[in-house]
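Hey forum,

I'm writing up a methods section and want to include a predicted complex as supplementary material. The small molecule is NAP. I've pasted the protein sequence and the SMILES. Can someone with a working setup run it? I'll credit the forum in the acknowledgements.
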Amino acid sequence: MKALLCTEYGPLDKLTVGELPSPTPGPGQVVIDVKASSLNFPDALMVQGLYQVKPPLPFSPGAELAGIVKEVGEGVTSVAPGDRVIAFPGFGGFAEECLVAADKVMPLPAGMDFDPGAAFVLTYCTSLHGLQDCGRLKSGETLLVLGAAGGVGLAAVEIGKALGARVIAAASSDDKLALCRQVGADATINYATEDLRKRALELTEGKGADVVYDPVGGAHTEAALRATAWGGRLLVVGFAAGEIPKIPLNLALLKERSLVGVYWGDSVKHDPRGHERNLRQLVDWFGAGIIKPVVSERVPLAQAPAALARLTGRQVKGKVVVLPEA
Ligand SMILES: NC(=O)c1ccc[n+]([C@@H]2O[C@H](COP(=O)([O-])OP(=O)(O)OC[C@H]3O[C@@H](n4cnc5c(N)ncnc54)[C@H](OP(=O)(O)O)[C@@H]3O)[C@@H](O)[C@H]2O)c1
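Reply by user p_vandermeer:
Happy to help. Structure tokens for the complex are below, copy them as they are.
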């Protein structure tokens, strides 16, 4: 089978397409015939050796995918060959076949194609867990989303609306902000041309946002924290800008603000029931047409490294899907 291979941690252009033997499932494992997988920022960090998870070399990146179960190992009863599924193995998805633990496989929801299926779990689960479990976002509150046209950002815009919040989307271009409006943002800030803090305060009549969803980091974090309301919560989701901000703690004291970390992957281990509840909620929202993954590009395996470079170069909107059999 064909697979995108990382043979040494390093630049994205070191990734190559190679041939590997088809995997065989061990006890509790499933082999999936991959129909689509999607790019996530952590894929780019992982192949460069910059992510908290460092798979043994060689490995294929690709955290999430959708496809058809090819074979199941001993003891697997939750799925059977022929089932249409979504899987979130963490890595291994940019390949024609992927070996996954059965507890990381779920049925493809009714009415969902493989492309959106591959772009569903990681971004939406991160954003729902962040906003609901960590941020305690309530109906009627104001949510400010940074990097709002990116993978987790766009999901946060949709989920913020689904939870009844007023959503302010912030991103670096008018093009990206137009997409945010299309998926439901009530107001927008172009932080490449506008002062983020000033504009967020103007848009909230001086009160500030109740919750900030921050997958970007860098200089935007402090500006956004300064634009939060009394009791505001800033969700630390990621550092796509490449810089981990250092925040003066008096900003927390002054308005009883909280900085809350969000780590979806590990939260699933700590609260598997909560994760299942969130997944059910997301599947229901998808069925009701309330959320819908925005797939902006579809690329074959060989073009995945260039697409990852566009992702880290801020040139991608929504989600890019890799089609291993194309
Ligand atoms: N905590 C968790 O559980 C969890 C789960 C998934 C992902 N994450 C993290 O969340 C972040 C976003 O992931 P994603 O998959 O949504 O990525 P993405 O689709 O690339 O979105 C990231 C956004 O960050 C903004 N950005 C600002 N400066 C950037 C820079 N120098 N390089 C690249 N992007 C920059 C871009 O928007 P503008 O151009 O509009 O600024 C971009 O749309 C990553 O740091 C990822 O590791 C965390």
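Some notes you might quote in the supplement: Residues 40-42, 122, 126, 147, 149-153, 171-172, 176, 215-216, 237-242, 262-265, 311-312, 314, 316 surround NAP (CB under 6 Å). The chain has a mean pLDDT of 97.
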